[in-house]
Amino acid sequence: MPRLLLLACLLLLPTLAMADLEEARDEARRAAVAYDAGDFEQAATLWESARDAGLDAAVVHFDLGNARFKQGQLGEAIASYLRAARIDPGNPRIRTNLDRARAQIKDVDLSGHALPPVLRPFAWGYSLFSANQWLALALLLGLLLASLRITNQWLPLPVRWLSPATRVLAVALLVATLTGSFRHHLDFGTERAVVVAEEVEVRSGPGSGYNLAFRVHEGLAVKVADDRGDWLRIDLGGELVGWVPADSLELL
Fold first, then answer.
1. 94 shares a domain with 7
2. In whole angstroms, how far apart are CA 208 and each of 112, 201, 224, 226, 234?
3. Helix axes 74-87, 58-70, angle to 10 degrees
4. Of 54, 97, 186, 230, whose CB neighbour count within 10 A is largest?
């Protein structure tokens, strides 16, 4: 009997997951209706619920960012736009709204990650694809390169264009692999957050009794370097390092 009960539960799991996903889609549809009616607070609540239920799509984060921006929640809007850009970095609407929101930040963003020197000649294409898309491209190029090398070895006579094509593919494979790995490190290997409070005092230690180091303002993206429960250590690059209350940030 316990085995039959366990089997029944396992068979029900996909059905329950599909039901949750369909409910999340329904909430997203109701959020769009609320947004069109000018009820931005209700729209944001519904899109947040859909996101938390597993509807992790660029359009959901983008629409949530728009609803938050309409409410004057600059930090939360930028956080949502950044999540959308992580999934669909080549989307011009996401980039436009993100740039428009960033233009209202009081601070200069010093936490931007410059491309490594080897990737700078290819900066034009860096933001076209997500980390997973770059790595998938690298896999495809690797398979194509391997097939060309095998073909070249099995042919009775050498083909003149195969060697140059192999070299070009090898360079493209290297660029795609490095770009995908770098994007993956930035998106998933480094914990990032956005300041959501209007102004935050950055302290030299994890507590309000420590010396004031500097201040940051709403909308600024920061790197989270350490976690002490109610306090997070942020790193803006150089000597701009300090501690802020955890509730003043929204983690990405």
1. yes
2. 28, 9, 18, 17, 15
3. 160
4. 97
Q: Using a pLDDT cut of 70, give the percent of the chain over it.
A: 79
* Residues 61-99: tens digit of each pLDDT: 999 999 999 999 999 999 999 999 988 888 999 999 999
- Orientation angle between helical segments 40-52 and 2-36, nearest 10 degrees: 160
Determine contact, residues 224/215, Cβ cutoff 8 Å. no
pLDDT(27) > 70: yes
CATH of the domain at 37: 1.25.40.10
DSSP string, 128-182: TS-HHHHHHHHHHHHHHHHHHHHHHHHSSS--TTHHHHHHHHHHHHHHHHHHHHH
Query: Which of 43, 74, 102 represents a domain boundary (last residue)?
Result: 102
In a domain, 109, yes or no: no
**Residue 96 near residue 226 (C-beta atoms within 8 A):** no
In this predicted structure, which of 71-75, 150-154, 200-204, 219-223 has the lowest mean pLDDT?
150-154
Reported as a single tens digit per residue, the pLDDT across 210-235 is 999 999 999 999 999 899 989 999 99
Q: Domain count of the chain?
A: 3
The mean per-residue pLDDT over the stretch 165-169 comes to 80
Last residue of a domain, one of 173, 189, 205: 189
The Cα–Cα gap between 127 and 251 comes to: 21
Domain that includes residue 34, residue range: 2-102
